[in-house]
Amino acid sequence: MDDAGFDEAVRALHDAHAPALLAWARRRTSDPREAEEVVQETLVLAWRKHHQYDPERGSERAWLFGIARNVAADRHRRNARHLRSVPDDAIEPAADDSDLDRLVEASLVQDALASLSDDHRTVLVEIYYRGRSVRDTAERLAIPEGTVKSRTYHALRSLRTELENREVLD
Question: Domains in the chain, ordered, with CATH?
Answer without folding.
Answer: 1-85 (1.10.1740.10), 116-170 (1.10.10.10)
